[in-house]
Amino acid sequence: MIEVIYKSKKNNKKIAKAIADELQVDAKNIKQVQDVKADILFLGCPILGGNIPEQVTRFVAQLDANKVKKVIFIFLLTVFGTDQFTNVKAQLKEKGIIYGPVFSCKGSAFIFKNFGHPDKKDIQAAKKFAKEVLKWR
Fold it and tell me: Which distant-in-sequence residues (6+ apart) come within 8 Å of 101 by Cβ?
């Protein structure tokens, strides 16, 4: 079973929907999810002020290694273009949940920063990433 879960107001929702469409599953807002059961979990969130939102950190803390079987794949939209998931990866490792590669692309922030992102190229890259993940498992 594959799950695509995201925290977003707009940008990550676009990426989550692209990944979900490619894998023929539904993308779910993190607010809608109580309990996760998945062989592969794609989890997406924005980086706000250089940090992962507290809601995402709490969500990862409640994941059960017996229900999220093998892997978790993470995608993010960032203004900075860097991987900000160090703490979340440590949480997953401590739980015994294996995590895979990180997909990231620029997201628009404020009015002018990365305007127009994610764009069509970013969406295509997310779809390609989803296909590659399935090969990895």
Answer: 73, 129, 132, 133, 136
